[in-house]
Design goal:
The chain has 243 residues and is mainly alpha-helical. The chain is 73% helix and 0% strand. The protein is elongated and about 65 Å long. It starts with 7 loop residues before the first helix and ends with a helix.
Amino acid sequence: MQSFKYSKETRDVILHAAKKEFAERGYSGARMNSIAKRAGVNQALIHYYFSSKEKLYREVLEFLFHHEESSIIEEYFKEDVLTPPEALYVAIYILVYLHHDAIDPETNRIISWEIAEGGETFKKLLIEYLYPRLDRITLIIQQGIEQGYFETSDPFLIVFNLVNFIISFENNKQYLKDTPWYGRFYGGDDGRRLFEYTLTATFKALTPKGKVLALPHISNELQHKLHIIIDKLKSAQGERYAL
């Protein structure tokens, strides 16, 4: 029986090869021997690290989710007491800049294959990683309603539309390239443009009747923390997408 010594570098090489294989062929069409060939390793080594094709596929998909996000945010904001408008500003800022320029063509193809094949693994990951984020933002809005900052009959629908708009904006970037529409949406500081539009639209939808739209004032210290958080999350994200 073969014995192997664990190596993070080897593990990452296998994940890199698997990402390419799943992007080209989907889960059903991908072959472990093909992944081994791409990675330049023995197929038995893949089983040593991941035990099965299903587990390898799940790990590749998990790289698409920013599951260290909560711990990093909590680390930087544990001493802060934010009002609901400030907390919502922070949530929108992180959502926009975390997804901005983050989805590469291979990731899009994997997601397309996954949806075409029924999306069972993707659904599990959505429940595990994405839905808790939606719940956290929904809670911010509910607290804002209780304290008189916001007004809406359906906080979750506001959050659902917010997240889907941001993801759709980034996903469509590659599809609109080389079309007349591309220049209307992308180019220049489109991240800042997306953030300002999303922030204003969300707060406008939540402004109580009879009140004037008011965006929260964010201190320089808080803005600095946001820049640090995005840098940390992007760094971790870059390691995943560089696989």
